Amino acid sequence: MYKALLQLVQRRDLLYAITWREIKIRYKQSIMGFLWAILLPAVIIAAGVVVRFGMSALSGKPVPAQALAGVTVKALVWAFFAGTIRFSSTSLVGNSNLVTKIYMPREIFPVAAVLSQLLDFAVAATLVGIGLLLAGFALSWQVLWVPVLMLIVVALVTGWALVLSAACLFFRDVKYFVEVVITFAIFITPVFYDVDMFKKWATVLRLNPLAPLIEGLERSAVYHEMPSLFWVSYSAAIAIISLVGGFYLFKKWEPGFAENI
Amino acid sequence: MPKSDSALRVDSVSKRFLRGERHDSFRDLLPAFFARIAGRKQTSPENRDFWALQDVSFELNRGDACGIIGSNGAGKSTILKLITGIMQPTTGHIDVNGRLSALIEVGAGFHPDLTGRENIYLNGAILGMKRAEINRKFDAIVEFSGLEDFIDTPVKRYSTGMYARLGFSVAAHVDPDILIVDEVLSVGDVVFQNRCLEKMHAILRSGATVLFVSHNLRAIAELCPQSILLEHGKVTARGPSQQVMNAYLESTGQQGVRSATAGVSISKVKITRANFANTAFDSGERIGVDVEVECARESEPFSIVLFVNDDKQYEVFHTSTEYLGCPPVSLFPGQRFTCTFELDLNLAGGTFYLGVELFRFNNEKTLHRLFPAATIFVNTLTEVRGVVNPKPRITAFGPAVETEPRKEAVKQ
Q: Which candidate from A11, A13, A103 shows the least CB-CB separation from B84?
């Protein structure tokens, strides 16, 4: 495994080239270009805002500006997570000509998919950040949690991307399975709602490793509060297990890729 | 790994594939799984096994150039995929010592929407070059491909030839320690093909180890002093290319190419000559070729074709009973037919192969083909090099004459 990691580091120029290709071809033949990076998160954010206004109409309480900002941040992270899972799970199958014809560390494909989605996220996050500042949200030292929490999100999603991309290679219908799970996962992830709304069920919801991270991002970026260290550590542990385990499984299955694709 | 001369070691490598359809979705897998639980009979795994390679071993030292010869399905591409690491051997080991580059399906990594320039960087990275290295070689790659004017055009607008040329150009500039080539020299026009061959020679001269797979025996003969013959996944011959090619041609020739419906076959081919004491032939010697044909079932009328190829499998000439004014032959079951060609062996020194074919000119159908029916060694000549001996003579030789006044003459 150490050797495999070393090989990946040696081929970092290839990782860069493949990531850059993913980004380039996505924007090359589209009229909207980089707007695509914003469109999908924008739709999810809009949905979140609508849900929030809906809830306030039912309860009769007005929507605080902070709640709107919170939904925006959470929806943005969710868009990154869902997009990455979707995009990376087909990354090996989509590059079948390279998998069967040339040898390279194959984890480059799912990892490049994660990186290219991360660039989209960075574009959208920059715009949201500017928007929040313009809307009068102040900055605090707590915002330093954002890169830390995002790093954990990336580790988590990369681990899953590795496993799912390999699973899609062996079984083509995993793709549809992923699609269904992603569609429903937004209900068990606190994107449009807060975990604390569910009182005693809150702990169960936080077992979803993405939940404490999304919550923590909202808290640190919008409310200037520290994320719950206990739950963030829990998520970080799951993320490390996912990443190491995903990489291990991927490398274990890799010898069979070329003849099973 | 100890530092040694060994560049590539293939150690008793076998590769098994499964015949038949595999389950590539859960939808297929589940019914099959339940069928197995229910105890329904399936094709037993042993019957589905297909061994593409069996116990293949060979070793190449630094600077060796080795050809791999074999019919379709002999396992040539499989061994290359194992060496490059695309697939893993079922049993056995492969040691690669140095940077390996493979010219297999050049341009496989191209993306149609990217320009030639972008694809050079992408493909270079795929083949293992660093960015700085590509920057340095970029101009040479473009110049080699001859696509200077189209380098900023997306490659989806390229012709097939342009696409392949760009692919080969990138791959040829990798500067590998070990180069693996699989049938890529058939790329582009004649000029580009020659340029490719020159480049391969240059790579060889730089001390790289080359493993070359091709059906083009001539190209193998030119590039590789030694070769390996693969037949049905096994190494059946190894040694100097010339010998291995003979073994290959004999093994394919003995089976001959035979039409399923033909009832006639060549039963004997014999060279007759005046001087039987010599093993080799003299250039210009008059020989006879006796061809005997037997008929088992009623067959179509045919003519007999005689042809001679050189050691690189280029046809030197062919002739036939039809060309020489004889009518097509019709035979009935149980009949035998003999025919003798007589010809002057006006060949230069070297090895030649004689082949015989029963051919129907009306519908261009081969009834039976025997090649090589015989091998002809022609004694080395001092006066001619090449393939044929047109018996050149000198009819005038000098003396030197003045075309303009000498300088000394001007002085005076």
A: A103
Percent of chain B with pLDDT over 90: 26
Instruction: Write down the pLDDT at residue B371.
Output: 81
User: Which residues 6+ apart lie within 8 Å of A112 measured at CB?
Assistant: A15, A18, A19, A21, A22, A91
pLDDT tens digits along B119-173: 999 999 988 888 999 999 999 999 988 899 999 999 989 988 888 889 888 888 8
> Which pLDDT band, with edges at 50, 70 and 90, does B1 fall under?
very low
Instruction: Copy the structure tokens of residue B110.
Output: 């191209």
Whole-number pLDDT of residue B63: 86
Q: What is the pLDDT of residues A185-241, one digit of tens each?
A: 988 899 888 888 888 888 888 999 999 999 999 999 888 889 999 999 999 999 999
Six token digits for residue B278: 């010599």
What is residue B75's DSSP assignment? S
- The helix/strand/coil state of A50 is helix
Query: Of B17, B111, B129, which is closest to A259 when you measure between CB atoms?
Result: B17
Predicted TM-score (pTM) of the model is 0.77
The CB-side HSE value for A92 (13 A sphere, CA atoms) comes to: 30
Q: What is the DSSP letter of B374?
A: E
Write the CB contacts of B393 (distance below 8 Å, at least 6 apart in sequence).
Answer: none
B199 with B172: CB under 8 angstroms?
A: yes
CB contact under 8 A, B128 and A14: yes
What residue of A is the nearest CA neighbor of B119?
A21
Q: How close does chain B come to A186, measured CA to CA in Å?
A: 25
Q: Which residues of B touch A100 (CB under 8 A)?
A: 86
Does B84 contact A11 at a Cβ distance shorter than 8 Å? no
Closest Cα in chain A, distance from residue B88 (Å): 6
Residue B166 has a CB neighbour count (10 Å cut-off) of 27
What's the rounded Cα separation, in Å, for the pair B390 and B137?
47
Q: Write out chain A residues lying below 8 Å of B113, CB-based.
A: 25, 28-29
